[in-house]
Design a protein that fits this description.
By secondary structure, the chain is α/β, with parallel strands linked by helices. It has 14 helices and 23 strands. It starts with 6 loop residues before the first strand and ends with a strand. The protein binds NADP nicotinamide-adenine-dinucleotide phosphate.
């Protein structure tokens, strides 16, 4: 497939006329053709008009038709073959197995949402039948289901060019909910975005859906991004990226005459707690697992373990010593973009000003290669210095040495909201862990024991979210099937004749949905 450098507004390939975006191969610092001239206000207008025109008919598609559409997107992405893998590798510097794995996750995610759509539980059907004879007042017939919010603007992330980008989790969950999607492509991987965008637009056509179900725009966040978020036809936003970008979009959405929800996933340093008994019995093994998690994918994961918290003592010293022996053998890795590499360099310089360096990985051998770094500080210094809490996106981490359990608790209380908190513990640590849990539940969206936070499963129970600044709305997840809930709202139908009700709410339950019927959970055979 020849890349065109054009946007996709519905089924039309349209050339922008603003400053062009051009991908840079971060491994060579060389630009990659073609250039993608940026879109402007009129392109946002066209995409939003089409999305709005498509909304009512798209949200009215049957569960089977919508599920088949999601599966067709996955099939079409797979049909792109190696061209997609090679373009994504060139645009991100990520190795082949990682991109292949991410394609599998992206297509698996689309198919998981297809299963979710078919099951229909997300409709959350509740029926309270009429009680005309109830005293002192009769009760009306009340029926509730969830409907799609409206067209959704999605901002693709830099660090997952497939799984969090054009057809990633935000897009899949919004389409599953019945929302048309307009993606603002991330400037770091425009070619990957075009390939996936065309696969998605083809699925719209293959399935006979209205054109406006999907559009893909290129351009600057400050022009195209803000125009999208402030367009009255956009009803929600999905974003993964920097804290400043997420806040700018959230504020723009809140300042609208009609404010809308922004689901922004932004910044997290993912504390890892090493409890005393676990540290005593396996400090060296923990250091090995930690270094592997820290350096995976050049540390460019939102769940990267950026903070280690433990009580001082010989066992913690063994952990730091082993990690410091292992890190110098870790190769520097190409980061996603020159900008992200420069931000990493600035972040580690700031950490070096405020904490002691414990170890560094191998020095860079090429452009934009991030060198892994481990720092150590005392809890008393951490508690005084907000610089030590800033996310450094990349393979850098800080060990916070606490004098006692009370200092562990104080450090934990001071943490901002997090995507994850990890507890390494043995049986003898359970009482200590139990005491800390209420604090960690308040701070993080996912708590994990004796594992590492990198690696996020796409499943029904996953929470990839957390209090600010991990996300802008701690009530939601951006990974897993519960992500669909972000793009839905409940509607109640009172005293409707059966023939006027949507099929999901009709008396005979023709869709065989699980319903809450007069307070009892119904489980019809499907
Ligand atoms: P970014 O700079 O936030 O950009 C993400 C998207 O948001 C881009 O499309 C960008 O548009 C847009 N945007 C940014 N600022 C905006 C603003 N003020 N108004 C409107 N739109 C705006 O994120 P990035 O390029 O992916 O990475 C930069 C940093 O983000 C990293 O160094 C890292 O700190 C952080 N990051 C965090 C995570 C995480 O999961 N926690 C993931 C990825 C990145 P433009 O194309 O115009 O820039």
């Amino acid at each position: 497939m020849t890349l065109t450098g054009k946007m996709l507004i519905g089924q039309h390939a349209v050339c922008g006329h603003r400053e062009a975006i051009q991908a840079i191969n971060p491994a060579t610092d060389q630009p990659l053709a073609p250039a993608y001239p940026g879109g402007a206000g009129e392109h946002v207008e066209q995409a939003c008009a089409l999305a709005w025109a498509a909304f009512d008919s798209y949200r009215d598609t049957s569960l089977a038709a919508r599920a088949a559409f999601l599966e067709t997107i996955a099939d079409n992405i797979e049909a792109l073959g190696d061209e997609l893998i090679e373009r994504a590798m060139a645009e991100t510097g990520l190795p082949r197995p990682r991109i292949q794995g991410e394609r599998g996750r992206t297509c698996g995610q689309l198919r998981t949402f297809a299963r979710t759509v078919r099951a229909g539980e997300w409709l959350d059907v509740r029926v309270d039948t009429a009680q005309p004879a109830r005293q002192p007042l009769p009760r009306a017939d009340l029926r509730q289901r969830h409907i799609a919010l409206g067209p959704v603007a999605v901002f693709g992330a830099s660090n997952f060019p497939l799984a969090f980008s054009v057809a990633g989790g935000d897009t899949a969950s919004a389409l599953a909910a019945g929302c048309p999607v307009i993606v603002k492509a991330h400037g770091a991987h425009p070619g990957t975005s075009e390939l996936v965008g065309r696969a998605l637009a083809k699925a719209v056509k293959d399935c006979g859906l209205p054109d406006g179900v999907f559009s893909l725009l290129y351009g600057s966040g400050r022009e195209v991004g803000i125009a999208l978020v402030t367009d009255p036809r956009i009803k929600a936003v999905g974003f993964t990226g920097s804290r400043s970008g997420g806040i700018a979009l959230t504020q723009a959405a809140q300042a609208r005459p009609e404010p809308i929800p922004v689901y922004a996933e932004m910044s997290s340093i993912n504390p890892v707690y090493l409890f005393p008994a676990a540290l005593h019995t396996r400090a060296e093994a923990l250091a090995q697992g930690f270094v592997a998690s820290l350096t995976q994918g050049a540390g460019q994961f939102c769940t990267n373990p950026g903070l280690v918290i433990a009580v001082a003592g010989p066992a913690l010293e063994r952990f730091v010593a082993t990690a410091s022996e292992l890190l110098p053998a870790c190769a520097a890795q190409t980061m996603l973009t020159p900008g992200i590499f420069q931000a990493y360099e600035a972040g580690v310089s700031s950490l070096a000003e405020h904490a002691q360096i414990a170890a560094k990985g191998l020095a860079a051998q090429g452009p934009n290669q991030g060198q892994a770094q481990l720092f150590v500080t005392q809890a008393s210094a951490f508690l005084r210095n907000e610089h030590l809490q800033a996310e450094v996106f990349g393979a850098a981490s800080l060990v916070v040495v606490c004098a006692n359990d009370e200092e562990v608790r104080q450090v934990s209380e001071q943490l901002e909201g997090q995507l994850t908190a990890t507890l390494h513990l043995d049986d003898a640590d359970l009482t200590r862990a139990q005491a800390l849990l209420p604090v960690l539940e308040r701070k993080a969206g996912r708590l994990l024991v004796n594992g590492w936070p990198t690696g996020v499963e796409v499943c029904d129970a996953m929470v990839h979210g957390g209090p600010f600044p991990a996300t802008s709305d701690s009530r939601s997840t951006s990974v897993g099937t519960a992500a669909i809930l972000r793009f839905l709202r409940p509607v109640c139908y009172q005293d409707f004749p059966d023939s006027l009700l949507p099929a999901a709410l009709q008396h005979a339950n023709p869709l065989l949905l699980r319903r809450l019927l007069d307070g009892q959970r119904e489980r019809p055979e499907r």
